[in-house]
Q: What sequence folds into this?
């Protein structure tokens, strides 16, 4: 099955056209809104204001400022060592999934509480549900295997206006399951999304962190510290993303009537052939590969559905238009 991006990467900085973070950060405005950011801001080699992106504390504080400024989330914090993801790239994933739904809806992104999304592995940061709800009014379920991450994500939801009731965070009781134990028997989701652990071992994750730190200009021989943080289960999985996404594809078959589109980020292009083969074997009706890029970083979303074109239209009628599907009449 060939790679066939639904949307080419956006021009200029590569971010999606609706991404709020396409331009340079306005550090003056961010510091006014979040004074705690000020100690981390300095002139870089190009004479412009920036932060040290190799410093986890600086990255986390920048995230706090961005969430406050752009998404009306004044209370956001995560424990030391937990993943503080780059918000622009996370927003891109949400916007490209919105485009995927728009294709079925005559070019208009369906918004509001009728649209429900499952974020597999939401983490303590709860970033995808925050962005998806603030941008499109979607309702979310976030799942995670880590009780600490679930507790912290719930605190973020409870502490910010408008998130409670729109975002439900659930503990996944089995580390080997993706959807089972989370999706209830009669529960429907228009989308599932996931940022899987990309590495196959702790050693591989640390080597990748070391390369990233060197690229950011921070040398040293000490044990590498990930600039975005991350617990073991957030960074690596036995067998890497190829095994993780294979399990996800296999399990998605069991939820084929409960979800319209399944999706996952894919970091390594060599993961794609095996995933395509599994989805074809399991009878996916449509598989999309959506390219994303931010600067030098290139990644992709793979999305799939088990519903054919007629079933997708029935889904739209029931879920987004509020009327009976033609087949129900």
A:
């Amino acid at each position: 099955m060939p790679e066939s991006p639904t949307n080419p990467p956006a021009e200029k900085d590569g971010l999606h056209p609706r991404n709020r973070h396409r331009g340079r950060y306005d550090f003056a405005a961010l510091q006014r809104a979040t004074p705690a950011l000020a100690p981390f801001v300095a002139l870089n080699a190009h004479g412009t204001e920036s932060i040290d992106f190799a410093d986890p504390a600086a990255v986390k504080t920048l995230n706090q400022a961005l969430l406050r400024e752009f998404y009306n989330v004044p209370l956001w914090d995560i424990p030391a060592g937990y993943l503080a993801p780059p918000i622009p790239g996370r927003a891109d994933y949400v916007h490209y999934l919105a485009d995927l739904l728009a294709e079925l809806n005559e070019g208009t992104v369906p918004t509001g509480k009728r649209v429900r999304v499952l974020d597999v592995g939401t983490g303590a940061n709860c970033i995808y549900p925050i962005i998806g709800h603030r941008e499109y009014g979607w309702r979310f379920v976030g799942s995670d295997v880590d009780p600490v991450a679930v507790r912290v994500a719930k605190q973020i939801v409870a502490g910010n206006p408008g998130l409670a009731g729109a975002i439900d965070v659930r503990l996944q009781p089995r580390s080997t399951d993706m959807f089972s134990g989370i999706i209830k028997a009669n529960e429907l989701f228009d989308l599932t999304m996931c940022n899987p652990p990309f590495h196959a071992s702790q050693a591989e994750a640390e080597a990748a962190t070391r390369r990233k730190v060197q690229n950011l200009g921070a040398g040293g021989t000490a044990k590498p510290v990930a600039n975005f943080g991350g617990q073991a289960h957030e960074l690596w999985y036995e067998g890497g993303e190829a095994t993780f996404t294979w399990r996800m594809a296999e399990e998605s078959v069991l939820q084929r009537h409960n979800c319209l589109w399944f999706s996952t980020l894919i970091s390594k292009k060599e993961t794609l052939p095996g995933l395509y083969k599994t989805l074809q074997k399991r009878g996916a009706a449509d598989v999309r590969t959506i390219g994303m890029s931010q600067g030098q970083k290139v990644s992709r979303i793979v999305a799939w559905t088990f519903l054919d074109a007629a079933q997708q239209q029935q889904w739209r009628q029931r879920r987004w238009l509020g009327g009976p599907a033609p087949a129900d009449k």
The radius of gyration is 20 Å.
